[in-house]
Specification:
The structure is a single chain. This protein is mainly β. The protein has a domain of 147 residues. The strands form three sheets. The protein has a 22-stranded antiparallel beta barrel. It has a three-stranded antiparallel sheet with strand order 20-22-21, with no helix packed on it. Strands 25-26 form a two-stranded antiparallel ribbon. β18 and β19 form a beta hairpin. It starts with a helix and ends with a strand.
Length: 573
């Protein structure tokens, strides 16, 4: 029954909900309609606007008397101090050494000026002491004297800077590499004199979108002493060296464009003398000219973190048969961690002009009759990393791999003299690998310390060794300032792996590739310097050279001086 009742309810509910919403019905009704009426007013245009009147309210005039009170202020006191140290035009330094070694220096410099500066320097150092070998044998006379002078000036203007100098150097010494004390000093003497001048002009037309130029002109004349009478061992040399270098640069945004153009000329002339001390027909003249062109561009990316320098070097060796060399030049560096780590990599190369003057600077005991060939480096691939651990501590690690042709090497000469106390120059090609590391620490102006270590690996083409070149090198330097009164300076140089070429067997001599090799031993040279400043104008100094008194040989059969103590005073006025 419950089921039947629910069914009926559901059926009727669905039936009634399914009916339509509209119903039609017929019926009767009474509907009333309202009466209409007419509007009697006529329409018209309203062409005026009623403006509300503005009521003017006059301002009230207020009068207030201004009173001025003058209060006294205590006068300020200004303490004046000397901000810039006073400059003195003259500086003189005088000293004497333990082995009769006089020292004298005189400097003159103009005081402060915005547009003009000039000065002159004069130096002299000589020695009259003896030199002994490790076995205490006294060598031939080893006296030397060196005097140099320099006069310079510079004009600084808004658009350019012009500078120039005149220089002179007189170096007299002896070929003392013979363990015989009785040799006459005049028979082994030598004197090299250099005279020259230089001019530099630099334009300053602005840093951006402006072309700037630099011109550098230099000339130097070198002469050796005249040959001794009745001497057939060696002759005299005259050398004239001229450099003309130009550089142009242009900055545009992040790019720095530059181009260098150089012309280097060297004229070498060697002459021998006959028994009457007249120059004979036996002479050697070598004219050497190199022309260099080096365009390039430097730019930066990533907010100047990445720097790229790309260029090209073109060198023309003007000789009997002119030859042109092309060298790539690329240098990339990236600044990481705000200078903490700066890796870099690049490649370079170049042609180096060889002169008698440059060889004599490196080894003064060479013959005056030498061959001159330009040193060529087709490529030098390098990479490394540098950076600053803190504001006081910096470091660097560097490695390079280079190929070099016509590398000048010094060997004992046996053809011109039976004393074997002079060196000739031979040339060889080699592959040079270098690894070095450096570290530097500086605490304001109080303490400065830096160290450098290098390792060289030579792969020679013809010679058994790279004669007289080190394989391992360490350099350590430091300065200390105590209360601006006491100054201490120290430096230490150590080298090992240097070999000399000899021409026969003997004690300690090795045979390599049918060549006789003699080790030159370990080189250790330490120096100490002390200075006491009585006041800013007067001071006293003490210099101790070769502290350990090591009688090492920088060149074969050329032991250096033992310990030297040099003291004196310096003054400004």
């Amino acid at each position: 029954m419950k089921i039947v009742f629910l069914f009926l309810v559901f059926f009727y509910t669905a039936y009634f909900n399914a009916q339509p919403d509209l119903f039609e019905a017929e019926g009767l009704g009474n509907r009333e309609i309202e009466m209409t009426y007419r509007i009697t007013a006529n329409p018209k245009v309203a062409d005026s606007i009623n403006v509300a009147p503005i009521i003017a309210q006059p301002l009230m005039q207020l009068y207030y008397t201004t009173k001025i009170h003058i209060d006294s202020i205590q006068a300020a006191t200004i303490e004046t101090t000397e901000k810039i140290k006073k400059l003195y035009p003259f500086y003189v330094k005088l000293g004497i050494g333990s082995i009769v070694m006089p020292l004298g220096e005189l400097y003159y410099n103009s005081t402060r000026s915005r547009s003009v500066m000039f000065g002159a320097h004069l130096k002299h150092l000589s020695s009259f002491g003896q030199i002994k070998g490790r076995d205490k044998v006294i060598y031939a006379p080893a006296n030397f004297d060196r005097t140099s002078g320099l006069v310079f000036g510079q004009i600084i203007k808004n658009k350019f800077t012009l500078g120039g100098e005149l220089n002179y150097d007189n170096y007299g010494y002896h070929y003392y590499g013979v363990p015989i004390q009785t040799i006459k000093a005049d028979s082994i003497r030598q004197r090299i004199q250099r005279t020259g001048f230089g001019l530099i002009l630099t334009t300053d037309r602005g840093d951006s979108a402006r072309l700037n130029l630099k011109f550098d002109v230099a000339y130097k004349n070198l002469t050796s002493q005249k040959p001794n009478e009745d001497s057939f061992s060696d002759g005299g040399v005259t050398e004239n060296h001229f450099d003309f270098k130009t550089l142009g640069w242009y900055n545009k945004g992040k790019e720095h464009f530059y181009t260098g153009f150089d012309v280097c000329y060297n004229g070498y002339k060697y002459e021998r003398a006959d028994s009457s001390n007249y120059l004979s027909d036996t002479s050697l003249i070598v004219n050497n000219t190199i022309i260099n062109l080096s365009p390039g561009v430097t730019t930066s990316f990533l907010d100047k973190a990445l720097t790229i320098d790309v260029g090209l070097g073109v060198s023309v060796d003007v000789a009997t048969k002119s030859r042109a060399y092309i060298y790539p030049r690329i240098n990339l560096s990236y600044n990481l961690l705000d200078g903490l780590l700066v890796p870099y990599i690049g490649i370079r190369g170049g042609l180096k002009q060889m002169t008698f003057g440059s060889l004599n600077d490196y080894n003064p005991y060479t013959l005056t009759n030498i061959s001159l060939f330009n040193e060529n480096t087709p490529y030098d691939l390098f990479f490394g990393v540098s950076g600053g651990i803190s504001k006081r501590l910096t470091y660097g690690v560097h490695a390079s791999f280079a190929q070099i042709t016509n590398k000048a090497l010094f060997v004992t000469d046996t053809s011109y003299s039976s004393l074997n106390n002079r060196f000739g120059v031979i040339y060889d090609s080699l592959n040079l690998s270098t690894v070095e590391a450096s570290i530097s620490y500086q605490m304001n102006e109080k303490l400065k310390v830096d160290g450098l270590g290098r390792f060289y690996s030579y792969e020679m083409k013809n010679e058994a060794r790279a004669w007289n070149l080190p394989q391992l090198q360490f350099i350590l330097r430091g300065t200390y300032n105590l209360y601006d009164k006491f100054y201490v300076r120290a430096d230490l140089t150590m080298e090992s792996g240097r070999m000399a070429k000899v021409y026969g067997p003997g004690d300690g001599i090795m045979n390599e590739n049918s060549q006789y090799v003699k080790p030159l031993g370990f080189l250790a040279d330490g120096n100490l310097g002390f200075e006491y400043r009585y006041n800013p104008r007067v001071s006293a100094f003490l210099q101790v050279n070769n502290v350990a008194s090591q009688r090492y040989s920088r060149w074969l059969n050329y032991p250096v001086m033992p310990i030297q103590i040099l003291g004196g005073i310096s003054a400004r006025f």
